[in-house]
Fold this protein.
Amino acid sequence: MKKWTTLAALMALPAGAAMATVPYGSMPPGFDRPPVRSVPIAGVYNKYWYNYRTDILEAEKELKSDLGRATDREDRWDAWDEWATEVVDADKDYTKVMRKKGYPVGRVSIEG
């Protein structure tokens, strides 16, 4: 039931408005942050997009909680590592289902 409540709240807000505040300033030096989508694949707002956003929001809430309980550097690294794994998994799940639905899921990266 909680997931559906969160989903309903996400649907009522603009794409970026429902995201938890991730304390990127406390990210360990050298940590590679995985990208988090701010717009849906092919501009399609469907249940898969909202499930993805819910997964990201839950990962961010858990990260903040884990960082709050961290007692040393290893705990902080573990929290960030777990968050990154959850973000990557959510993106894989989302792109997989959108690919099956026939949407183009490519990502363009520009590196300088």
Notes: The radius of gyration is 15 Å.
